[in-house]
Amino acid sequence: MKFTDTHCHLDFEALTPLQTSVPNSLLAECFNQHIHQIIVPAISPDNWSNVLALTNFNQELSNNSCKIFACLGIHPWFLDNLEHQDLTLLAEKVANNRANIIAIGEMGLDAVIAKQQNNLPKQLEFFDYQLQLAKQQKLPVIVHHRGTHNETITLLKQIKVPQAGIIHAFSGSYQQACQYIDLGFKLGIGGTITYPRAKKTINAIKRLPLSSLVMETDAPAMPLYGFQGESNSPLRLINVFEKLLSIREEKPEVIAEVMENNISALFKLPTNE
Ligand SMILES: [Zn+2]
User: Residue 107 Cα, ligand 1 centroid: separation in angstroms?
Assistant: First the structure.
């Protein structure tokens, strides 16, 4: 079996203490656990270069290490000091690094931040622009959501990105999940399902087609149940998989294989072998 962490902030200090070098031992350990690919989303202009730099190490990494794939985007938590021109900058950065990225993201809407910063219109502007950019560049998207299913689904229906993408850290009902799936999206399954309180999400994941699921950790964020207060790691992807096995009825090999196929269907990843 092989696994892919479809959402890991590998460039964050907790995982890559020296911003200039790749965390070799962590990547080798991931590979030992059969985690052969890690997708790294960007969050703001501040980390675009670091995220891109991580992919430069793919050539240097040994065959006994997992491979890193980058995305470029602007996360709704970090709009405070940004202006419309940062979106133009993003479009330029994407065009100049088109061969080194596999998606636009992460982007999206966050109701908690919208309330705190009173910035829903700005969040919508940034989300809208990035969806259009993905469409233009024929790239999939990584979508953040928190308390914003209705607004997110409305916008995704308005601006249909043919390559679709991943609804990061999906939590919600079966009906909500089906709306994303109808638009071609896959659902990012992570630490949320390890929490006993996540009954609605667990029930949804039990019933959804396996062809709509991919796994992620969001490390170093979103620690799993039992690890609260600790920094999360891409190695915990295995714990997410084990929890998924207890929810689904298919054999482990089948679940793993279908999820890997789901990733190949979404992204154009240079092959490892
Ligand atoms: Zn994230």
Answer: 9
